[in-house]
């Protein structure tokens, strides 16, 4: 499952300017339909790509010929737990296992570096879960975890299928929406 599909190759995003430009484009394309505003401009998307290329961090992509299908970044958070941000797949390549393959490659690279676990936040900016509209002042974590549902293909379901477990919820990350935190040990 984690092997490359026919004609795909794993690329380091920082290896060429072309991959960097395509990575910014994929970031914007993939998140625009979900209403994610933070990387909606070319400059903001490119700044995120540039940040992901910080020395020592991981930034991998899957390409088919000269087209970047998707990419993923991993940055230090704690000594043995790093943060995944972002994982994006070009809309025309979604539903074909690209995200799953990218994640598996990233996990193998991370484990080989001695990283013990991956943590990620899956924001609910577009009202895609049952957390949407729950006031932070009355937020009951146990109750919200019990009734948590995806309403519009929220990514937390994908991550759960890939072995990540929900370890917490931030009821309001400062912009009025919840952030679902997922974690996976690599060893």
Automatic annotation (TrEMBL):
Keyword Transferase annotated: yes
Which InterPro entries does the record associate with it? Acyl_CoA_acyltransferase (IPR016181), Bact_Acetyltransf (IPR050832), GNAT_dom (IPR000182)
PROSITE patterns for this protein:
GNAT (PS51186)
PANTHER family for this protein: AMINOALKYLPHOSPHONATE N-ACETYLTRANSFERASE-RELATED-RELATED
The answer, when asked if Acyltransferase is one of the entry's keywords, is yes
Q: Which residues form the N-acetyltransferase domain?
A: 11-187
What protein does this entry describe?
Answer: GNAT family N-acetyltransferase
Query: Which species is listed as the source?
Result: Marichromatium bheemlicum
Q: Which UniProt keywords apply?
A: Acyltransferase, Transferase
One protein family per Pfam: Acetyltransf_1
Question: Source organism's superkingdom?
Answer: Bacteria
């Amino acid at each position: 499952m984690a092997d490359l599909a026919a004609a795909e190759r794993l690329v380091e995003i920082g290896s060429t300017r072309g991959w960097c430009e395509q990575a910014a484009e994929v970031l914007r394309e993939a998140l625009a339909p979900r209403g994610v505003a933070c990387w909606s401009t070319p400059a903001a998307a490119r700044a995120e790509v540039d940040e992901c290329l910080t020395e020592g961090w991981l930034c991998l992509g899957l390409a088919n010929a000269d087209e970047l299908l998707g990419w993923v970044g991993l940055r230090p958070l704690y000594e043995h737990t790093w943060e995944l941000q972002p994982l994006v797949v070009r809309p025309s390549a979604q539903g074909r296992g690209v995200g799953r393959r990218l994640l598996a490659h990233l996990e193998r690279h991370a484990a080989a570096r001695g990283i013990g676990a991956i943590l990620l936040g899956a924001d609910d900016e577009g009202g895609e879960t049952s957390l949407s509209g729950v006031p932070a002042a009355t937020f009951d974590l146990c109750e919200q975890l019990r009734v948590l549902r995806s309403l519009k293909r929220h990514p937390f379901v994908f991550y759960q299928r890939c072995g990540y477990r929900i370890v917490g919820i931030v009821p309001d990350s400062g912009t009025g929406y919840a952030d679902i935190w997922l974690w996976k040990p690599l060893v």
